[in-house]
Specification:
It is a single chain. The chain is mainly alpha-helical. It has one domain. It is elongated, with a radius of gyration of 17 Å.
């Protein structure tokens, strides 16, 4: 069965509309937490903490959460990404510090 471009776009729109979590807020928030933890795990497997590229897996994770879950779960995913990025990937690693900001913290501003 060959579909025209317009029919393909309509079909994709219906599929996305049927597979979003906008009508299930608790599931959306739980998915946001799980996707961000998965993104963190993938990032730690890709390269060591000191290697840079702090947020390489967080960007697509936040995008997916916001697309399928909506604005508020997307903001929760962003907040989780900022916390994890600051806690794990900025010196001193694996600590929260009140020291003056390091150059790496400018990435947090760009991420948010």
């Amino acid at each position: 069965m060959k579909l025209s471009l317009k029919a393909s776009i309509d079909h994709a729109g219906r599929w996305v509309g049927n597979h979003t979590l906008h009508d299930r807020p608790l599931t959306s928030y739980l998915a946001a937490v799980m996707v961000m933890l998965l993104a963190m795990g993938i990032r730690l497997v890709i390269a060591p903490v000191e290697a840079g590229l702090q947020y390489v897996t967080f960007f697509p994770a936040v995008t997916l959460v916001a697309f399928f879950g909506g604005f508020r779960p997307g903001m929760l995913a962003t907040s989780i990404g900022i916390f994890l990025g600051g806690y794990v990937f900025t010196p001193p690693y694996w600590e929260l510090s009140l020291e003056p900001p390091y150059p790496e913290t400018s990435g947090l501003a760009w991420f948010f």
